[in-house]
Amino acid sequence: MYHYKLQVLILSQDNCIYDAVSAIEPLTGFEHELFLKQSADAAVKTADVIICELPEAVLADIVKNSKKDAAVIFCAAADTLNSRDEIYSQALADIWIKPYSKSFVTFKLRKLFEQIKITKDRNLAQGYIETAINSIPSLIWFKDIRGAHLKVNDSFCRAVGKTKEDIEGRGHYYIWDMKKEEYEQGEYICLESEEIVLQEKKTCIFDEKVKTKHGMRQFKTYKSPIFDDNEQLIGTVGIAHDVTDLENMGAELEVILRNLPFAVLLTNEAGKIINVNDVCAQYFATEKEALIGQEYQQWKRQNLAHMSEINAKGYADTKIIVGKREKNLEIYEKPIFDVFGTAVGMLCMCRDVTVERHLEKKIIYSANTDQLTDLYNRRYFYEYMTRNKIMSRHVNLFYIDLDNFKKINDEYGHQVGDTALVMVAKLLKQTFSGDFLARIGGDEFLVVVLGEKTDAELAAMAETFLNGLQQSIVSNDKFSVLSASVGIAVSDVLTDIDLLIRQSDAALYEAKRNGKKQYKIYHK
User: Fold this and answer.
1) Which residues, 6 or more positions from 77, have their beta carbon under 8 angstroms from its beta carbon?
2) Which residue out of 242, 443, 477, 496 is catalytically annotated?
């Protein structure tokens, strides 16, 4: 609702009119700002209502300097009216004959204020209508009962290539540059549909072809009758959506779908499949016609049963068999919305990412794995301990270091040393099957065994490994000096990974200091 400050200027030698105006309650949306002056000044230029009790000599300047829409009231005695200039009379809103009562002033001003409010309301409503229809891209028009255009919006003007001043008041054949004979024949015009609306006296929807400045256009038109206060039909209002491009969209969409290198599936608002491309039919070994019309959710359950959860970006993964080969598919789901934000369907795209996933696995493997021993590396050890919820669990850490490994490298070369490392890695996999194994340095290894274990159980694991190592080196003289030392640390509730490593390292150092070829369990 608007709020307007109505300025009332009273040019008078006394307070009678001022008091009467002060007593009048402002109408809704208005407030009164009163000025009482004994002579005309700059306030004349901004006042909405001017009540003049000054001599007639100043009236000409007041009329000349007042706002265009200001209401000027002249107060005069009856015997002075004969000398009034005719021009002044036409410029005035009213003439009050003196003497007059307070009730007379109140009555007159209330009527005047009501008329001002009606004018303001009408102008505001007009502004609402103009702003609304001109912000809409569709064509909008209002016609009287004879078919003359009373009001049109900017989109209508652009379509016909004419201004509003040139359009309003004119008929259809002039506006659309049609010959009268064409108009009367009803070809490519709205004549027949207008008659239907007038007969039916209700909103009707039509598909109409119209010749415009931009060539032939296809419109979806909505036309409604307009009635006056007595329910008499006085005209029509129409809205036309240009759907020329939408009419061709089906063919364009088919071209796009046919040339996309991945599977695409579209549904309507009811969840039924309405279109698929050839790749989609190929992936799922069926005909396009067999897919169209199926319930999308049911189709998903049958064909994408092993699909992962859709992530925040709308993607998921699944595996399917295409021919005799397994393929990794990346699934993308996205609702389709119309211009009003209403969901009208679903888009599902299935992209073959088999090669990508294979490369990703190779990259991840290379980043996390020691290529020589095929054990995990130091970097992945920390990721494993944090990502897999190892923290706060019971952890047993074996820190293994090979004894005299440097001698083998120095005497026989790094190739023989590498063979020894591979042999140890294989033995670790056999001894600690199912546990986490990592090579964290040249001849240093870590083994993570989860779950509560007794010292006897931990000792048995370490002895099994050490005994296995001794048996493995018997057949190779180059490895005769090789052995291993093991440090074991235990954490009931793991809170600090590096602390556990230091404790196992301390136990390892004690094992080496005591003669190597043995294990030690760290105790605080």
Assistant:
1) 97, 98
2) 443
